[in-house]
Amino acid sequence: MTNDNKNVAGGRPAEEKQHSFVFDLFKRMVVEKPLGAFGLVVIIVFLAIGIFAKYLIPFSIIQINLHMINQPSSSTHLMGTDFLGRDVLSQFIYGARSSMEVGLGAAALAIVISVLIGAPTAFIGGKTDMIVQRFIDVWLSVPAFIVLLIMMTLLPRSIFTMIMVLGTTAGIGGARLIRSAVIVIKPNTYISASEAIGSSRLQSLLRHIVPNIMPMIIVAFTLGVGQAIMSEAALDWLGFGLPISIPSWGTMNPWPWAPLAISLTIFGINMFGDSLRDLLDPRLRGGVGRYSLKPKKLQQLRKYFVKEQLND
Amino acid sequence: MGAYASRRLLWAALTIILTSMVVFLLLRFIPGNILNIIQENMAANGGGPIDRAGISKLLGLNVPVYIQYARWVTGIVLHGNLGSSLMNSRPITPLIVQRVPLTLELCLMSLIIVLLISIPIGIFAAIRQDTILDRILRSFTIILISVPNFVIAGIITFYVFIWWHYFTPLQFISIGKDPLGNLGMMIMPALALGSQQTGGTMRVMRTMMLETLRQDYIRTAWAKGLRERVVVIRHALKNALIPVITMVGGWIPILIGGSVIIEYIFNLPGVGRLLFDALNNRDYPMISAITLILSVFVVLSNLLVDLAYGWLDPRIHYQ
Q: Does the distance separating the beta carbons of A126 and B246 come in below 8 Å?
């Protein structure tokens, strides 16, 4: 019997890909990583709330009603009202927008800065690394909150400034972490191999180094989101944060909604980051590593091979 | 390595000098100044307007910043004198010498606690990926970083009191007098201070462990028939630790920053409190002095971290 569709190895027909990469990734996340999927749902929900904040709020965020201050939750004000009689739910919804913007924006900026500084210096090494690292030492020696306070007082206060300030401060410190990840993979033979076949420094960096520190980049980015949201809340609390006209989870007062949302977001993004890291790791795909073979999968494989042998 | 270390020490001196300059300048950008604060204090106590020019001359603030910096540095180099506080004219050096050990102890203890929690969990999460226990342990550490440390401080204090009727003594016990009492007193602040670092460390440990466990030399180690414990601890862990110790090296400023709040909550007389008060009073020499000490620690810890790279992975060479 001849069948052209048959794969050569083992006679197993080649599987056709039915779904897009993103759909597959999503499916695997739900099946294999329930905690990661939960994190993703949390992030998507808060993002959606933030994006559609304008249409979701039941009351205007600046509508002050001094007859209704500090009300507990009721049917009109689901989360109650604050010390100026403003609706807490509306502020919470708008707060999701600013907190997500600051968190994701600052973390993205930070990771770009970290990779731009950390990866090339570690890869080139020598004097460049020595000098750049000393500047980072200086930066790290100045307590971060002094820098944050000064920058927030000198610059006009807005979400954009907040993203810039938090992103730069975290990014320069994070460069050391990225540098260390590059140092770990630099001695690998595939790096020397790529140099031996004549690829330029830049090519090795972009095609071999950066893709291989991707897991660390994902971890650093998702850690950064939490740190940025937390720092923003702290700055708001100290009175150096966003102006009062922009509600955020840091400026909102009655407890417990905003802190709960902050904690939930940080938990979600960290869990999602770990799962994404696992799912994108090509060495874990297919599951035949020492540590990724699950008993169930092993049984399936065994059954499969036994059947093959019987057929032969 | 010796040559590398000595070259780094030379650079360290330069780094520290540069840091002190940057901080000295940067502080002048903080809004408000000591004169306004003195004025406010006077007004609050029913005093009249103050002689601003006279006081500014007395405190040495009437000359340009670079001359103030030069005077401050001369004092340090010639007499080992970090200057005196603008607020109460007391010399800074003895004050800092008295308070550094406490903050150092606090930071070291929280460092040890964090490592004891996060490294085993990180390793476990990597070698038993996606098991139930892995999910529970990981969730626990991530919850620790999802909650601000002052909230954790409150929770710890509250439940320890409810369950064991223990409350942190109000009077400070020095380590010289009663080592055990001192450790008992510091453990709760150290836990609260470290809580923010556990999650990040655990996640970096886990991701690097997953990376390293799939390297060729680990396959070789398995092929030699080594036991799991040996493969994981002797072969994989050392290599995977590099980014983790980098993180640990970067903690010193973060922990000092965190100790500002924690020392305030637990009423500990450490450097964090000193820095907090100095910032509130715009006490420039005090802030500069504390930052100078801090930068010495940062530079030294980063040096140690870089030297440890070579010990952890013999393939890394120092140029």
A: no
Q: Which residues pair with B84 in a beta bridge?
A: B91
Separation of alpha carbons A170 and A111, rounded Å? 8
Residues of chain B numbered 147-176 and touching chain A (CB < 8 Å): 147-148, 151
Q: How far apart are CA B40 and CA B48, in angstroms?
A: 10
Question: A117 to chain B nearest CA, in Å?
Answer: 16
Instruction: Supply angle C-alpha B295, B301, B303, rounded to 5.
Output: 105
Interface A-B, measured as beta-carbon pairs within 8 A, has a size of: 177
pLDDT surpasses 50 at B59: yes
Please name which of B251, B277, B289, B164 lies closest in space to residue A177, comparing C-alpha atoms. Answer: B251
Considering only CA atoms, which of B293, B286, B296 is closest in space to residue B27? B286
Q: Is A86 on the interface with B (CB under 8 A)?
A: no
Retrieve residue A254's tokens: 């009655």
Yes or no, beta carbons of B203 and A274 under 8 Å apart: yes
Q: How far is CA B203 from the centre of its chain?
A: 20
Distance from the B120 Cα atom to the nearest Cα atom in chain A, whole angstroms: 17
B84 φ/ψ angles, rounded to the nearest 5 degrees? -125, 155
Q: Which residue of B has its CA nearest to A129?
A: B319
Q: Tell me what ipTM this predicted complex has.
A: 0.76
| Mean pLDDT, all residues of chain B | 81
Contact A134 B11 (CB under 8 A): yes
In tens, the pLDDT along A52-107 reads: 887 877 777 777 777 767 777 777 766 777 766 677 788 888 888 888 999 999 99
User: Among residues 97-126 of chain A, which lie with CB inside 8 Å of chain B?
Assistant: 125-126
Contact B242, B314 (CB under 8 A): no
The H or E element that residue B285 is part of is helix B284-312
Smallest Cα distance from B181 to chain A, Å: 31
Structure tokens belonging to residue A44: 């998507």
Q: How far is CA A70 from the centre of its chain?
A: 36
pLDDT at A230 over 90: no
Q: Beta strands of B47-204 (E only): which ranges?
A: none
Q: Could you give the angle at the alpha carbon of A214 between the alpha carbons of B119 and A175, nearest 5°? A: 75
Nearest-5° angle of CA B139, CA B142, CA B143? 85
